[in-house]
Design a protein that fits this description.
The protein has 188 residues and is mainly α. The protein is 83% helix and 0% strand.
Length: 188
C-alpha cells in the first residue's frame, strides 16, 4: 500500500513539527516546574522515542529512502537542539554546552547538504549512540524529577549530560575522519 510507504517520513516530519510546540511549552512554564514543564518533557520524550519507530518501519518494509536518511537526523537535531537552547534560556544548562552541541550538529547538517548530490551521509553508529545519550540526558534534565526525588538527581543529570557532550564531540570527529578517509579513497 502507498500509505505505509510514506509512514516513516510522515513520522519524521511530525517530530520536526513537535519541536516548536515542545519549546513553547518549556518556556511558557518559565522554570516553575509546573504542568507545562511536565507536558514539555512528555512531548519531548514521545517525539524523540519515535525516532526508533520510523527507522524500524522503513527497514521492516524495505522502504528506506534517501529523503528519510536526510530528514531523520535533522528531526533529531531540531528536537534536541531546541531542548538544549530551552534549558540554557531557563538557566538550567550552561550556554557553552549548548554552543558546543549546536556547532557540531549544524556543522554535520550543513556538510550533509553539501554532499547530498554525491552521496547521502547516513547516521553512523557513534552518531546514533550520541543521539541516545543526548535523548537520555535531555529527558532527565527536562523532567522536574527533583520535585519528586530530591536534589540528588542533579548529579545524575550532570553525569548523563557530560556523557552526551563527550559523545557529541567524539561523533563529530568520527564523521570528519570517516569522510576524509572516504574522499581520499575516491581520489586514489
Amino acid at each position: 500500500m502507498a500509505i505505509h510507504r510514506q509512514l516513516p517520513n510522515a513520522i519524521t516530519i511530525v517530530r520536526i513539527l513537535c519541536a516548536p510546540v515542545f519549546l513553547w511549552l518549556l518556556l511558557a512554564d518559565g522554570g516553575t516546574d509546573g504542568p507545562l514543564r511536565w507536558c514539555a518533557a512528555a512531548l519531548f520524550i514521545v517525539a524523540i522515542a519515535t525516532d526508533g519507530i520510523d527507522g524500524y518501519l522503513a527497514r521492516r518494509y524495505e522502504i528506506v529512502s534517501d529523503l528519510g536518511k536526510l530528514l531523520d537526523p535533522i528531526a533529531d537535531k531540531v528536537l534536541t537542539g531546541l531542548a538544549f537552547i530551552g534549558l540554557s534560556i531557563l538557566g538550567e544548562l550552561p550556554w557553552w554546552i549548548t554552543i558546543v552541541v549546536l556547532v557540531r550538529e549544524i556543522g554535520i547538517t550543513v556538510y550533509r547538504f553539501m554532499v547530498v548530490s554525491d552521496h547521502v551521509l547516513a547516521a553512523a553508529w557513534m552518531g546514533k549512540l550520541k543521539t541516545v545519550a543526548q535523548s537520555v540526558a535531555l529527558s532527565l534534565a527536562l523532567l522536574p524529577l527533583w520535585t519528586l526525588v530530591g536534589e540528588w538527581i542533579f548529579w545524575v543529570n550532570g553525569i548523563t549530560m557530560a556523557i552526551a557532550v563527550v559523545l557529541t564531540i567524539a561523533s563529530g570527529i568520527d564523521y570528519v575522519v570517516t569522510e576524509l578517509r572516504s574522499s581520499r579513497k575516491k581520489r586514489a
